[in-house]
Amino acid sequence: MKKLTLFLSAMLVMMFAPALSKAQAASPIPATAVNDILQKLTEKYGDSTAERMERGIKHAASLWRKDDGPAKEFTSFCLDNYINDAAQREAFFKKVSQYLEAMYGHFDEITLALQKNVQLATGPMLPIDKMFAGYSVGSHMLSDLYRNKIAFAIALNFPYYPLADKEKFASIWSREEWANARLGDIFSARVPAKLEQAYAEANTKADLYISEYNIEMGHLRTNDDKQLFPDDMVLLSHWNLRDEIKADYADNAKGPQKQEMIYEVMKRIIDQDIPEKVINNPAYEWQPFANKLYNNGKEVVFKPGPNTRYQQILNNFHALKAIDAYYPVLDTYIKRKFSGEMEIPQPKVEALFDTYLRSPELKQIGALIAERLGRPLRPYDIWYDGFKARSSIPEQTLNEKAEAYYPDPKAFKEDMPNLLKQLGWSDERANFIASKIAVDPARGSGHAWGAQMIGEKSHLRTRIPSTGMNYKGYNIAVHEFGHNVEQTISLYNIDYYMLHGVPSTAFTEALAFIFQSRDLKLLGITDENPHTKYLNALDNGWSLMEIMGVGMVDMKVWKWLYAHPDADSAELKTAVINISKDVWNTYFSPIFGTQDEPILAIYSHMISYPLYLPAYSYGQLIEFQLEEYLKGKNFSDEVDRIYEQGRLTPQQWMEEAVGQKISAQPVLNAVDEALKAFK
Length: 679
Fold this sequence. Notes:
Blueprint: H1 6-16, H2 31-45, H3 50-63, H4 71-81, H5 86-119, H6 127-133, H7 141-147, H8 150-157, H9 163-169, H10 175-185, H11 193-211, E1 214-216, E2 234-236, H12 239-247, H13 255-271, E3 285-287, E4 292-295, E5 298-300, H14 308-321, H15 333-342, H16 346-357, H17 360-373, H18 395-405, H19 409-422, H20 427-435, E6 437-441, E7 446-449, E8 458-462, H21 471-492, H22 505-516, H23 519-522, H24 532-563, H25 569-592, H26 605-608, H27 613-630, H28 635-643, H29 650-658, H30 665-677
Parallel strand pairs: 6-8
Antiparallel strand pairs: 1-2, 3-4, 4-5, 7-8
Helix pairs in contact: 1-14, 2-3, 2-4, 3-8, 5-6, 11-14, 12-13, 14-25, 16-24, 19-20, 21-22, 22-27, 24-25, 24-27, 24-30
């Protein structure tokens, strides 16, 4: 469905409202019982594993519920299942890793199959397709593992280490100790399966809403009824709309007019006063500036659609907030996303963004862009693309080249080994990596889906029109290809399954950006500009400003949600727009010279990927530091080495990768050098 009915929205709120309090979700095991178990195990084994023993007992106790049995049963369980011997514990760890890989891997494959018809361009969707796509096949797995006591056996012997402890031990832990800690992360909290399933359903509906939010650009009209875009151009919000703005910098004739129209469309989407009938529908002509709708030349009276965009955010929020009570430490989604998943506390992220967005260099870049454009900056110039080599190449030329190379997904799939060889991988290694990646035609803008088990493939999804892969699709495909390469290296080249992957999404985004920056090279287009180094620095500095701005909006919106948990979609819409304007006025207005611009609220990630946007900024910082490190080195060998590290903490990963922590200062240093070169 494109949207939830008001009835279903109300039902979702009712479902999530009665979430248990912390007291109701708390453990029935008293501290005296924990101390008694610790004393008995110490008498039995001595104190050689005292720190782990105490941590394991306390953590297992925090997960125990009344339905699991009385306190005396918990005591017996700990005395019977604690493993003191190192060899036995290692054997236990290896067996558990094998079992979890099988479970995660097969559940992942089933999920791919269930979501195939809503994620891929397989033809018309039926209601049953959407129902199956919203089913989380693995939502009961953890509940079942608690019920059969497997979870307690793991938590007792491989306890959870909070972020502060991981950072304390980061430099002294062995690879095996890191893998042990990552096993402990799996059972950090005990969330009922019905709540996990409820979030999966809400998130799938939000994702589906976004994946079908297409604007028929050939049916847009100026106020004097002029058509600016080709008849068959269909752009997904916000990704393709943004990319079209970028492409239009190369169109000196109509580019500015087209950019102004797209910005007006974006504002209508943000305000939700866009006619509902124009979304994914070629039957109407629409004048976005006047907001008038026509059918067969006659004006049609319409009412703006409901605040569906903001209801999707609320549905995700209520589903995630219902889970809060089951996390003793990470008791908000904000904490879980940052201190838990991203492993960088939210206040530190916001402080970094604030410092960077206030950098005086950004105003200098803005002045340079205005000079290059020959006009004052407009709000959509947050996506200025003129520093890239492709900005001087007509989009038609890029489209023709991409379409000739890649008429269908099969052609891109077959060319992947060659792309990897161009980047330095040997024939054997390139063929191996490419063999672990499948290419699929996406309904939406595209994404990368990683495998979770040795023997399975990651999936590259990108939108491919019937005429072939245009440049926008190719650019996205190269980005997703970077994700897939990371996913393959960090699964197939890892020494412990529990370490597979990367510290957070920011690190996979970094390699995706690195691949994307080489898209013209992979198309056979050589950039001979002697100022490329400086142009890249300015592009990095400017794009980092843009993505940090939208990340700041995303974080502030979630803070607002927690402060106003009973808000409705209209109130949330007002809040999002006001927050966007406040962020603009604080950081962007001094650069652009305009006030109260809402453009930062257009990002679709806010709808279907809750709090994902801040990771992009870290991804760009990591990308820049990796690019600086990779200069003069063997690209493929270093990428293999770096991404074989797996899931360390972010700062430890970066130190081992490039010898320094994550920082925005290298970007600013490069920007300073570039600005001097252009004076």
